[in-house]
UniProtKB/TrEMBL annotation:
Origin: domain of life: Bacteria
Reaction(s) catalysed (UniProt annotation): GDP-alpha-D-mannose + H2O = alpha-D-mannose 1-phosphate + GMP + 2 H(+)
UniProt keyword terms in alphabetical order: Hydrolase
Protein name as catalogued: GDP-mannose pyrophosphatase
Annotated organism of origin: Syntrophus aciditrophicus (strain SB)
Any GO molecular function: hydrolase activity
SUPFAM superfamilies: Nudix (SSF55811)
Length: 189
């Protein structure tokens, strides 16, 4: 393959909303050809795996219009409330979605969710030592908090009752971290 640096030659916005923008444009590929592609620019996001003092995961059930289903998920959201740090975003999302915040946050992972067409970048956190802290949810959210054990969550991932990949990754990362941590809250393995 040649030493041509891939680059965007032109781009035009197709659609813009509160959290993302859709673009189409010409791209120079690494082999020198050009192609028309579409992509989504998305704000950075966080995902939190909250674990109660009793060792239960606090998942949320909410309706997702794109898949027309109620999904079981970990709390997550975009950095969209002005200038806030990642940790401030985690605490805000926890308060909005489960009514708690965390005295202890551990960054577990960060990476792109679907780089084939979107630059959405997500930061995963484990949230422990929870305390009550309520913020009203976003206007388009109706959320039910669902406490479950790690064993239940792992079984639900296997049989498809947890079908959200960010949730499956977050639970797996938290499970692996907590199994090897001496200061982890008690949880049923």
């Amino acid at each position: 393959m040649s030493e041509i640096k891939p680059q965007r030659l032109e781009e035009k916005p197709v659609y813009t909303c509160r959290i993302f923008e859709v673009y189409e444009g010409k791209i120079q590929l690494p082999d020198g050809r050009t192609a028309t592609q579409s992509w989504i620019n998305h704000r950075p996001c966080i995902a939190a795996v909250p674990v109660s003092p009793e060792g239960k995961l606090l998942l949320i059930r909410q309706y997702r219009a794109a898949v027309e289903q109620m999904l079981l998920e970990i709390p997550a959201g975009a950095l969209d409330k002005g200038p806030e740090t990642l940790e401030e975003c985690v605490q805000r999302e926890l308060a909005e979605e489960i009514g708690f915040q965390a005295r202890r946050l551990v960054k577990l992972f960060e990476g792109y969710l679907v780089p084939g067409y979107c630059n959405e970048y997500m930061y995963y956190y484990l949230a422990t030592d929870l305390f009550a802290a309520f913020l009203p949810p976003d206007l388009d959210e109706v959320i039910e908090v669902v406490p479950i054990s790690f064993q239940e969550a792992l079984a639900m991932m296997k049989d498809g009752r947890i079908a959200d990949s960010k949730t499956a990754l977050g639970i797996t990362l938290a499970w692996e971290y907590l199994k090897g941590s001496s200061d982890a809250p008690p949880f049923s393995g």
